[in-house]
């Protein structure tokens, strides 16, 4: 039989106060006689028809197991929740689902996000880039007019760039353990280059094919 809503419970109590028998009320409300009797008993004991507070479903892992789970993903940021759940056991040696593991990781701020893909920068690279920015911070428009900005993009031909997820916090996008390293020039690809500056001129499209033999 369907579960009685809050409105139906108050309606049952009204019928009881009118003196209708429990069997007739159960037929009208399509409820079991035991449900009506327990509803009257609950009102007498607690002065309410609402459900008693429940503790909820017991957790399948302990707090120590949750800490070990987070530590495992902190050591290997590219470990997926589905792969880790197959290796993790909860209370009483029971298996846990991937969704349960994702909820535990989410409470620690670890969510599956797209990793930043780029070259791994050493401390020397970071220092040199910081010095370059400090030297050019005071440049005015006259200095920048003599500069041509260029950029290029590589499109893979022989394979598709696979999408992976990394478990990281929102402020850890550029951490070394969260960056997916790759060989920028590996494999057959199509390289598109472009540049722009303050001087006007004809537009030219430059394209080349890079082959890794």
TrEMBL record:
Q: Which domain of life is it from?
A: Eukaryota
- Gene3D superfamilies on file: Ribonuclease H-like superfamily/Ribonuclease H
Q: Which SUPFAM superfamilies match?
A: Homeodomain-like
Chain positions covered by the region annotation Disordered = 46-65, 77-109
User: Which InterPro entries does UniProt cross-reference here?
Assistant: Homeodomain-like_sf, RNaseH_sf, Transposase_Tc1-like
Q: Name one GO biological process term.
A: DNA transposition
Could you tell me which residue ranges the Transposase Tc1-like domain spans? 66-137
Q: Where is the composition biased (Polar residues)?
A: 77-99
- What is this protein identified as? Transposable element Tc1 transposase
Can you name the source organism? Answer: Elysia marginata
> Lineage in the entry?
Eukaryota, Metazoa, Spiralia, Lophotrochozoa, Mollusca
């Amino acid at each position: 039989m369907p579960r009685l809503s809050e409105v139906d419970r108050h309606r049952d109590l009204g019928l009881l106060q009118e003196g209708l028998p429990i069997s007739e009320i159960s037929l009208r409300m399509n409820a079991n006689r035991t449900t009506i009797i327990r509803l009257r008993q609950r009102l007498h004991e607690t002065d309410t028809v609402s459900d008693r507070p429940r503790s909820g479903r017991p957790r399948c892992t302990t707090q120590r197991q949750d800490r070990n789970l987070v530590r495992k993903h902190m050591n290997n940021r590219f470990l997926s929740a589905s792969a880790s759940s197959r290796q993790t056991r909860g209370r009483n040696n029971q298996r846990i689902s991937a969704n349960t593991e994702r909820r535990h990781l989410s409470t620690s701020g670890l969510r599956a996000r797209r990793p930043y893909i780029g070259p791994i920068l050493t401390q020397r690279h970071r220092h040199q880039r910081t010095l370059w920015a400090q030297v050019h911070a005071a440049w005015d428009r006259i200095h920048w007019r003599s500069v041509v900005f260029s950029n290029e993009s590589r499109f893979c031909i022989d394979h598709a760039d696979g999408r992976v997820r990394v478990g990281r916090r929102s402020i850890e996008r550029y951490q070394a353990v969260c960056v997916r390293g790759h060989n920028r020039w590996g494999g057959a690809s199509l390289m598109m280059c472009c540049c722009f500056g303050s001087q006007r001129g004809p537009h030219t499209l430059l394209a080349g094919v890079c082959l890794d033999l």
